[in-house]
Amino acid sequence: MAAHAEISIATPAFVSCQDVSASPVVSLSAEAAPFTPRDSSDADKQFSQCYAKLRGLRPQSAQLRDQLNLLFDKLLSENYNKTFNPSITIRPEDVCILLKHASSLVPFNQEHLVIKFCQLMHHLLNQLKVIMDELTLDVLMNYVTCALKKCSAWTHSDILLALSTIVYGNGPHCHQHLENLLCENGVLLQYSSPQQELELQRVSLNCMANVCLRVPGQPPLDDQYRAVCFKVFLKTLQTPKPVDAEELFYCMVLQSALKGLQCCLSGGKWKFGGGEELGSVLAILKQMTFQGSPGVSAEWPSVLYPAPLPQYEGTSSPRQPEISKPAETAKQGTGRSKPSANKKRKSRGKGKKNATDESKDGDEDCDGEEATNKQESLKERAASEAENVLKSSAQNFYPSWKQTSSDSEFSDAEGGAQSKLRVYQGRVRQAALLCLLAVVKGVEKRTLYGYWSSFIPDSPIGGPPQLTLLTTILKDTSPKVRKCALQVLSAMLDGSRQFLAVAEDITSSRTSFTSFSFSLATAVRELHRTLSLALLAETSPQTLTQIIKCLAYLVANAPYHRLKPGLLSPLWRQIRPYVRHRDVNVRVSVLTLYGALVTTQAPLSEVQLLLRQPEASSILGSYTPQDTNLSWRQRDGMSSPCRTPVKHDSQRHSPLNSHTPKEEDSSPPWLLQLCVSLITQPRESQSDSEETGMTVLEPSPVRLEALQVLSHLVRGYFSLCQSHLFEIGQVSARCLAETDPSIQLHGTKLLDELGTGIIQQYRAENNIPENQRVPLSQVVAFWSEVLSGPLNSALQNEQHPTLQTSACDTLSSILPQAFAQLPDKTQLMCITVLLGLTYSENYLVKTAAVRALGIYVLFPCLREDVMFVADTANTILAALEDRSPNVRVKAAWSLGNLTDTLTVNMESVSVDFQEELSDMLLLKMLQTATRASADKDRVKSNAVRALGNLLHFLRQSQLTRSVFKQPLEDAVRALVKTVQSEAMMKVRWNACYALGNAFRNPALPLESASWSHDAFSALCNVVTSCKNFKVRIKSAAALSVPTQRGCYGDTDRFICVWHALATALENSEDTNDFLEYRYSASLRHTLSQALLHLLSLSQAQDMSALAKSLSGEEGRGIRVHLVKYLRAEEAATEGAEEERHGDSFTPQQRVKALEQTVVRLKELQAEENKETVVAFLEDLLKSCDES
User: Fold this and answer.
1) Highest-scoring range by mean pLDDT, 245-259, 330-344, 1165-1179
2) CB-based contacts of 263: which residues, under 8 Å, 6+ apart?
């Protein structure tokens, strides 16, 4: 329940001259003593004295009115703002006691005293940032609401001022009062009516805005009250300006309504109706974003509709703006006046502070509303390029900041009034854009996409100019407004990758209509063009930073692999000089943009070419109007020898020099050089405030961003960086040797990316030729150097657990082949450190260490080491009992990897490994995994994987021991329960796979165990009823695993499995989810293979039931799919899992297997039903021969 002066949107609390206690008049002269502010102890003392006197007053005291006037005047005369007097020690509870007591002393019939008391409430609550208790809030609310009812109308402005301060952020705590204030005939609704005078309307709108304001950590205002305020704000914005209203006061009303609307929209999802309401809000906000813009006059729609038709969008017409005077019509085309070149703009920020928040905010807003003369000439020169491209719109919307002083048509007084009006109009536009930003953040992305064309043009230039966000970015006179428009555009682009993925103009040809994909591609190109022009014209560092950030959002989400090449190359070169910009934030944002360029759809051929280009060609012709800001850097080539870590004799390329491909390939990419120099090399020059001769590195934000860009570059374009592996490793080592934990952290992450890039090269599935990989000897040398360097210190740095965590991740990114060739001492160090870190008290470190061990246990050189496997198993089992769910998740994953190693060793190592591994350890693993299968889904998914591997690994001698009997049954029943549960689908299909994995163990007593029936029943149920086709595929594959007929039990169970598979095959296309339908072919493939597998195992006792099935309707459905399977007409697509038995059979092999089944069945001594089954199979073979 705070009342903060800096944020409050209440009105000024002016105190009349006669009410303020007289102060001695001091004439100003050269001999006068300099002004010294009063000590904060004076304010404390003054408050204490007034507090004591006021507490001693009673309603019946003599001369009460005079004493109250005097005390109020003294309190109002002090400045309690803690910004100016940070040592003020006035307690909030004393303020609350004073105000409560004063409310009992001021009668409502003394209206001048009421006004002064209301001003005092505003003054103290605002400046002291008092958080009121509930009793004080209730007392003061009662007082001001009664005052509104009992006092004359001329006092209501000041009373509403106090009310707005009281309710600031306290809306949820004022329920009983809000019913009276916001009911149908409530005071706030009456005064906020457009029929009221503008001042009262504005103050009441401020009150409602403060009521709606949501303070972090507190509940929001009830939806019913918020909806009432929302309607009032929207109605105010939609109501045309009264004929007799002054434009300045009207702008203040609009600003209050917009701030109130922003309070309603901020901090949550859209809750104000469907598409019609959203369209109305977007329409009025779009209109407000051009309030007072020179040359804009359009027929604005009342509602915006998704994908609007042309008749919904008015075009700009060349009639004069609403704010122009009749005498100015002839001169409107030439623009407005501009500050004189010789006249310095006064800074009002240091003037005497009034008890008003708006006047203070106004002074702050003016800093940059009108550009300084030095920036003016730069902006005129830069903006001329934008004008040449946008000539059609320039006639209708000619920026006033491009005019010369000779165009001024106002006298000084008129110019001052117009300048002030433009400031207020700029605030309206800024508030409208902030509201629009709240809408963009609160409305679902897919809903908002339909309105994109209203704010982002999707047609190329040449037609009538559209009024969009891009118009504001290019043309608005206020850098703050342009910055807000860029923030809105950035919010729209953020997370739009899925929407923009449809954009495509590579294969588009001339047609009679414009496709949606081509329109989106045009929008992307228009965004590139507009933001590039804005980059050329902008001189405000804050707005320039936002332009570059917006470009980064665009680059991160646009599908450049579907667009014609050529969009990224100009941008790459254009932003190059800004790397040396004076402003740190600009430099950081440029690096962020370069990071997006090397991250998006990496590797892109266009980016690869840019990275391969020599330094000089990458910057040729890339100077901007802001080059004058780069004077503290060398602008000759935008680089310097001392900033590049490689020899510059071979680096300073001239556009006339020729280079062989080999020479260019041997030189590091320019971006890599830049990042390394920013990270490691000292700045070439310091600002005037810095002492010369000192070695000063780049600021930490620049170095951190450069490290991130370097990591992105290594991840996306490793092939271009691999020849400089040791140089990059030295950069990481230098970062690790520094004292800044953030630099150390990013150094370890860079090492992690290098290790991951090497591992990717050596993966068999990537098919990278050996001569294009980093030689194994270099990899071994690289890791030997890294592991003997400062990485060890990072691993042992307990003061910074995040750094330890990243260092563990780095250890896990060592190439297994290289690890095997490291010295034994180094290998032992890695293993010992990781085992020790699993006992860390920090869960992040423990998680990373357990994960790293889960990777090491897969290394060929370690997985056959029984002692290492046993130590790792014990460590993982202990971590599975940890309190932290994150630790348990990684422990379960590592246990799954460890059990994968056990099953691999069954085939690759002799039986000695199984015999040497302790039975008790295996039993403990089985029991722990069973318990973990009842944990959270993220733990459960890998716990069931581990159970399947363990059930596959156990030997006959272990299964027959009594100590294993109950844990074995518990493990299988845990898998069955998971298959039948409502867990997430990944857990269920892992459980299905685990059962299939267990079925591969011939030592499991499937034919006699009590749990066997439940296992088959669960799989049969899932294969027919589960909505997820991948789970069905896994269950069908599991049902086809047993290789002996006896594993399926008696005939009833065997036929139950058969019917389940047949039913699943018949229903394999029944789904309403397109995402599942794409797996239907793979499902049919697996089911067909499973049915043929059952036929190949069937015995004489099964013939009767099989013949009945195959001769009926079920058999005819089965025949169609089996023929397609045998002919391979329906290839297994995504979702056909490689673990399925026989999945890789060719059509010839399938037919041959079926022929062998027919021969075997003919040899069976069975009743005549056998002939029906054989005839069915021979008919299948005949159908295959005919094809």
Assistant:
1) 245-259
2) 209, 210, 212, 213, 214
Tokens standing for 1172? 């029906």
Q: Which two tokens stand for residue 801?
A: 């657990």
Contact 501, 346 (CB under 8 A): no
Is the distance from CB of 201 to CB of 232 less than 8 angstroms? Answer: no
**Residue 691 in this model has a pLDDT that exceeds 60:** no
Residue 319 near residue 296, CB atoms below 8 Å: no
Task: Give every CB contact of residue 660 below 8 A, 6+ residues apart in sequence.
Answer: none
Phi and psi angles of residue 461, each rounded to the nearest 5 degrees, phi first: -70, 160
Please, are residues 110 and 63 in contact by the beta-carbon 8 Å criterion? no
| Nearest of 401, 396, 529, 517 to residue 466 by alpha carbon | 396
The residues near 114 (Cβ < 8 Å, ≥ 6 apart) are: 106, 108, 147, 151, 155, 159
Q: Is the pLDDT of residue 357 over 70?
A: no
φ/ψ (deg, to 5) at 79 = -100, 110
Q: Does the pLDDT at position 514 exceed 90? A: no
Q: Give the DSSP per-residue string, 880-901.
A: TT-S-HHHHHHHHHHHHHHHHH
Q: Report whether pLDDT(160) > 70.
A: yes
Rounded to the nearest 10 degrees, the angle between the axes of helix 412-442 and helix 357-366 is 100
Helix intervals (H) in 981-1050: 985-999, 1012-1025, 1029-1039
- Using pLDDT thresholds of 50, 70 and 90, give the confidence band for residue 342: very low
Please give the distance of CA 658 from its chain centroid, rounded to a whole number.
44
Average pLDDT on 613-639 reads 43
Alpha-carbon gap, residue 589 to 594, rounded angstroms: 9
| Of 249, 572, 536, residue with least CA distance to 417 | 249
Give the model's confidence band at 1074: pLDDT under 50 very low, under 70 low, under 90 confident, else very high: low
Q: Which of 233, 211, 215, 228 is nearest to 164 (CA)?
A: 211
Q: What is the DSSP letter of 11?
A: P
Dmax (CA) for the chain in angstroms is 129
Question: Can the peptide bond before residue 242 be classed as cis, meaning omega within 30 degrees of 0?
Answer: no
Query: Region 940-947: what's the mean pLDDT?
Result: 95
Which residue's entry shows tokens 């008129």? 414
Cα 982 from Cα 968, distance rounded (Å) = 23
pLDDT band at 512 (very low <50, low <70, confident <90, very high): low
Please say if the pLDDT value at position 989 is more than 60. yes
CB of 154 within 8 A of CB of 387?
no
Nearest to 815, CA basis, from 849, 845, 777: 777
Cα angle for residues 229, 231, 236 (degrees, 5° grid): 95
> How much helix, strand and coil, in percent to the nearest 5, is found in the chain?
65, 0, 35
Would you state the pLDDT for residue 3?
43
